[in-house]
Task: inverse folding
């Protein structure tokens, strides 16, 4: 079991009827996407054609920040607020969609780090939407 | 002029028809509220009745993270995405509303740091809503 | 290969003579520890004896922030600055040592989330020190 | 009094013999510098000669993250750890020095946002060093 899964298992109070598997997957996807987007912004900076990648870098930075915050909010269960959770997940999914689209475009043109990043964004967006549905 | 205002003035490309005053106020309120909520979570931890303040601490931590990310997103103008901006502002306003309500309740019972924090949350929520309206 | 490993592999410029395995392990440990510490602070908040865990919660929050920032700094390679990297790694190792010690104490007394968190902190501290040595 | 100052005044436990003015100034400078560096990275992205500014952008991003984390650590007083505080302040001062030097160079060549950012970095570095001396 991953550390995120272990932390859910050892939470000392009632977690309610949350779908633990979907929650764990979403937390892990958020932290992974935050890392990948941070790295992709930096990889874009080192490309010869950085001037054509400025929108991608900006999307990466926003998405990293949103995923980071969403991963943190989802890691907390005390005083759970379903409305706030949903709103944050929707903002995160929007950032992942936007960044995933931008990165996929560059990935198709051969930029490999953007291809990897697009996959992380798609994965994170999907886990956010799956979790929203299960709330 | 504040540093946030100076950074807007010296941005080298077109800012579009954003309301600069509302944007500056919202950026500043986000960073201020991130600090205040971080400090309020810690002040609650040092209260004798911390066991009654756990929901407040959790709201503080979420609100600090949301305000932090929102302040960062609003500080970027390259490749501006109105939909994402609006979604992030709505999540931030929701976190500020929730934390502000919680803190105001404790503030009325004499907890002064919660009173200060409730004011920061109200202010930040209002600047988010004003900015959404102006988008 | 993990996404963090793939991002290193696809970085478009020269990474210098960095030990890629140690770097990947440290990046992953930082993001994992940021998640674990965020979750442990929240789990402590839900314990009956939260009043005895306030120092632990504070250590968790500091450690989460340090690991988060360190994981981001290590995910960037453009304009690499060895001195800054070393200083940041030392601050992160110090936070992990301090939080790991605190959590281990509670873990020995049966608090399982603190036990899991202590392991994440030990692991992250070790990967930071291994990376410092290899710089 | 600023909100950061009010939060220090209303902290419910003993703050020890910390220099409150130096602490307040450092907290405020950290959050201000985090905002300024985030905005400067984005302003650099929109410059015609972005390809010559990639090291500056990277320094901005690191400095924003370090200042953010340092501002958070300094906003907590519960279970105060002087060694960790000092180590974090030194990492922050190093990031501010590095980013301030880089931005000052571009500021002298007429890049106004870098000039504003250099001032925020110098100010933040100085408040960190003043606080270290007073610990």
Result:
């Amino acid at each position: 079991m991953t550390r995120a899964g272990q932390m859910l298992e050892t939470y000392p109070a009632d977690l309610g009827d949350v779908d633990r598997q979907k929650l764990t997957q979403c937390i892990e996807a958020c932290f992974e996407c935050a890392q990948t987007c941070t790295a992709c912004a930096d990889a874009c900076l080192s490309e010869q054609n950085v001037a054509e990648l400025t929108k991608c870098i900006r999307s990466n930075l926003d998405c990293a920040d949103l995923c980071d915050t969403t991963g943190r909010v989802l890691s907390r269960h005390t005083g759970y607020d379903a409305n706030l959770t949903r709103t944050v997940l929707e903002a995160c999914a929007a950032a992942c969609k936007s960044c995933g689209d931008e990165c996929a475009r560059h990935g198709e043109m051969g930029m490999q780090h953007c291809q990897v990043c697009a996959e992380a964004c798609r994965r994170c967006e999907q886990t956010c939407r799956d979790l929203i549905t299960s709330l």
Summary: The CA atoms of residues 29 and 124 of chain B lie 5 Å apart. The mean pLDDT of chain B is 97.
